[in-house]
What we know:
Helix 5 (137-146) runs parallel beside helix 6 and helix 6 (165-183) packs parallel to helix 7 (199-209). The protein has helices spanning 47-58, 69-78, 86-107, 111-114, 137-146, 165-183, 199-209, 226-234, 249-257, 273-286, 299-311, 362-369; strands at 3-4, 7-8, 12-20, 24-31, 36-40, 122-128, 151-155, 188-192, 216-218, 240-242, 263-264, 290-291, 318-319, 336-337, 343-344, 347-349, 359-360. It is globular, with a radius of gyration of 21 Å. It folds into two domains: 3-110, Enolase-like, domain 1 (2-Layer Sandwich), CATH 3.30.390; 113-356, Enolase-like C-terminal domain (TIM Barrel), CATH 3.20.20. 36% of the residues lie in helices and 16% in strands. The strands form four sheets. Strands 6, 7, 8, 9, 10, 11, 12, 13, 15 and 16 form a ten-stranded mixed β-sheet that branches. Strands 3-4-5 form a three-stranded antiparallel β-sheet. It has 390 residues and is of the alpha/beta class.
Amino acid sequence: MGEADGGPIVKITGIRTYRVPPRWLFLKIETDGGYHGWGEAVLEGHAAGAEATTRELADLLIGRDPRRINDIWQMLYRNGCYRGGPLLMTAISGIDTALWDLLGKIHATPIHALLGGGQRDRVRTYTWIGGDSPTDLIQHALHALEQGFDAVKFNATGAVPMIGGVAAIDETVARVGAVRDAVGTRLDLALDFHGRVHTPTTTQLLRELEPFRPMWVEDPVPASNPGAVIEAARSTSIPIAVGERVHTRAEFLTLLESRAIRILNPDPAHIGGISETLRLAGTAESYDVAVAPHCPLGPIALAACLQIDAVAYNAVIQEQSLGIHYNTGSDLLDYVLDSPFEYTDGTLTIPTGPGLGVELNEAALAQASSTPHDWRAPIWRHPDNSIAEW
């Protein structure tokens, strides 16, 4: 095995995928030098499709130098006629993250050191409370305080018809107001509309929620309509966060150029991995826009986010999935060997181990993936039996 300025010369020999409960897809890139890297390439509710796309791209990687991360990224993104979209970008994300993990292991150093060194040693984090249809919010908010968190996020609404009506608005306002009354200013409240509220109702609802001073409202309307997102953002003093369902920098640029969006929450597992998220964060910084990486996913996705948080100046707070309502039957640390995730006073410490700083239990993954999950988002309907946004 030869040496070069970039470390040992190795070649990619294979990619393994593991689709495991509760709703995750991990991939492992292997080399002829014994080095390996982990990525997470799941698109929630479409894990089988993401796995097939990842395997389709794997053929392009065999025999390549895994240190050439930029070249491989551009090859995967630009090869052929079609680019962008959730499935392709999710597969690229998992591969990109695994390549960075592998490079860090080759050099026996964390990814953030390869990127010029961290700007912070820990990052503020928040915990999810409630569920898909928010319940027991006050109880869960008080428990979050006991755990040391100073910020929470929750779904602010259940299913909302296109014109929500006074009752739907009042119900949401009462729900948020009750949480604010219970916790005072001890907790910052991030409200997720999850794209469930449409333009005819959004402006009214945002106006009614302003007195509770949310940290942000996320996806106030479906992100597939950027004009409506921008209109909602301009209608309120509440900072609007958007990005988990946006998959290319070009799409984000429309939001940034509006000068209306205050927070981007891209998902490094869906936008192109560590490489593309950092490129986006740099662009957002020039617009004085904050970044709060989206991550209701597994441990590899979280570890990738923390490497980004270490080096992106405008990274302000990190989502994480420990105990989240999606993790039925399995939780964040179930497949992890020697967890690097240290929670202290509402913050997460940046891992300092080689690569991502986290290693998975491959035997446990192999056993769990022998009966791969097929997680699906619930199907919601309005009282008239029409499909509701989830």
